[in-house]
Every structure is written in structure tokens, then in C-alpha cells.
Specification:
Chain lengths: 347, 77
Amino acid sequence: MAFRVVHYINQFFANVGGEEMAHIPAELREGKVGPGMAFETAWKGEAVIVNTIVCGDSYFAEHEKEAKEQVVAWVKEINPDMFIAGPAFNAGRYGYACANIALEVKQQLGIPVLTGMYEENPGADYKDKILITPTANSAAGMRKAAPTMAALALKLMKGEKLGASCEDGYMPNGIRVNFFEKERGAKRAVKMLLNKINGKPFVTEFPMPNFDRVEPGKAIPDMSKVVLGLATSGGIVSKGNPDRIEASNASHYGEYDIEGWDALTSEGWETAHGGYDPVYANEDPNRVMPIDVLRQMEREGKIGKLHRYFYSTVGNGTAVASSRKFAEEYAQKMLQAGVQACIMTST
Amino acid sequence: MVKEIERVGIPVVHMCTITPISLTVGANRIIPTIAIPHPLGNPTLTAEDEYALRYKLVDAAIKAFSVEVDKQTVFEF
């Protein structure tokens, strides 16, 4: 008798549609859908996907409680041997949904769960709570991810003991597992060193923890004299996107002059973002970059004045390293212009 | 991006809908907003009500600058 699996995927991988369908509530389908096929191929009949749950990414993000309750209720009734979500690759909301729903199923129903995503995906933050297989940053990585996830899933369903993260293909979760390396330490260290000297790739066996936090800035008791800067990852740009900021994986940011603009209008501004439904932002760009109310606050003396430029990029699958570079650069521009506080908006 | 701005000494208020992501990326002052495609608006409202809603949200952000925080804080209002 084959093991029974329930698989969770988003609207995109179910072929329902892209961003314009991201609002669809969770629905339950029979059998496998989309990426589930690759898992079944790898299982060779040892396990089958009995049901697939399809849920829009925005729906999950905006109705997390309802979505979780519904999914858990279905999974409870189906009573499978395992719950798999994704993989989500570098899709932020999808990764967040996969990690959260997997954790919820694990906590509520106590069955094994597994998901997969790119290491920079915000959902990967849950790697010490649930098993997450690291994947490439795009769906092109499915061919590599599917066999790893399928093998790990089978191991979990059979109740076999987990190997170390590097053996069984999950992100290190802080639990140490002893195993014998084929080569002794000195040999591995020298190999690593030689690779490093020769500029070849090498993998450390002892990664440093990454706690990149910045101390909160000091409070500003009186905002009425302050020059306020503005930035967004929501992709608001001058109409026609003159800087050609990419709809996803942006390679640069834009600097936009708002002198003389009392509000952003749909004639003058739009969004370049390809990761959310642009209708609302295009109709009224103040919904993402609230120039209209800030101008009023300027007049009322609630703030000193707005910095003449705002900075905008598209935060859609954009690499962390790129975002860091953009903001390092425009933070200097803000500093030089005397900006003392900054509002960042994100979609 | 919020971290890089705050690192140079400019305090940042992050206005966003998925606050857990904001916490992950390291924002220190966070104002939860309405929805992903319209964080600072709500198309189902009348123009006046929507403007009032946006004013209220941005006002909360302005107020958040005046609050001393020693750790990541999601402001409720």
C-alpha cells in the first residue's frame, strides 16, 4: 500500500493564473497537480499524492487564519502520511505561505511535513521549525529539487532516522547529527584552502551565524522641522518607466523628482512592479507612495518638508545583495540632502 | 533596504502589509498596512474615506518616529 501525501501549491503552479489570480481562496483537488507529478515520478509508486490544495498567495497572506483553518481541516479529514508544500523557489509570499502552512499542519496534526525554497526566501526563516529543502531561485530548479524532496519525504514517511542536513538535503536546522566523513578533517581543510586560493568554489563546514540587525534609530520627538525622505519597494515610477526598472529581479532603482507634485496622479505615475496586481497602484499611485497626505502634513506643519526626490525599486524576486546596494547608495544621497527620517513602503 | 538606511543614522518606519517579512528583513519600526496591492489605500471606500484612511496610516508612521524603541516593534493603532 503506497504512502498517501497531501500537496500544497499556489495559483501559479496550479496553472490557474499569475498575480491576477493570487486572491483565490484555498481549494481542494483530487490527485496531483503541476509539480506533484515530479514527486510521484521520483517515488515510483511507493507514495502517491491523494489530494492537492491550491491557494492564492495573496489570499494566504491576507487571510492567514482562515486559510490555515481550512487547510488543516481538509488535511485532518484526508488523514495522509505526509504534507508537502511547494517548492516555492524565490517567491516571497509563496515561501511564506508554504512555511507557515507546513508548520501549522505539523503542530496541529503531528504528521511529517516538508517544503522547499531558495535560501533567501523569507519563508526560509522557519528552517529550524520545519524541514526545508534548499532550492534554486527559480522554478528551473525543480528538476534538481524534486528528487531530493521526494527522497527525504519517503524517508520521513517510512519513519527512518534523518541524516545530517548535507546528506538528506534540508537546510541546517540547528540539530546536530553525527556521521562519518569519507575523508579525514586535515585532508578536507587543505582541499578547501587550495580551492579558496585558486578562486574555486568551496563549502565551509562551519558557517558563521548571520545576525545582521541594525540598532533602531533614535526617536525624533519633534517631526515638525524634519526633512522626510521616502522610498518604496512597490515600484512606483514616472509614467512610462523611463529608467526601465525591471518588473522582477530589479537591477537598479530610480530617483524621482516630486517638486510641484501635490499628489501622485495616474497620468504622471505608475508601478513597474510585476509581483502584485498593478490595477490599484496605477489607478492611484498614492496608495503605494502617499504623497497626497504627506503634502497635507507638510502644510499642516506635522512634518518639516518632504525631500525633493523619492527612491523606488521593484522588490519582486530582487536579490538581497542588489537591494542592499541600492539602499546603500540612496541612503548617502538622503544624508547629503539633510534627510532626517525616512518612510519605506512595501507591497 | 530599511537596514541600509537606518545604518547611516536615518530612522526608518516601514509601512507594509506582511509584517512578518518586515521583521525578517530587520525593520525596527513597522506600521501594518491594508493589502499587498494597495498598502495605503482601499479601493472599496469612497475617495474621501480612502484619503482619511491613508492620512491615519501615515500619521501613525509619523508618530512612530517619536517613539523610542529598543527592539523591532510592530505598532498597532
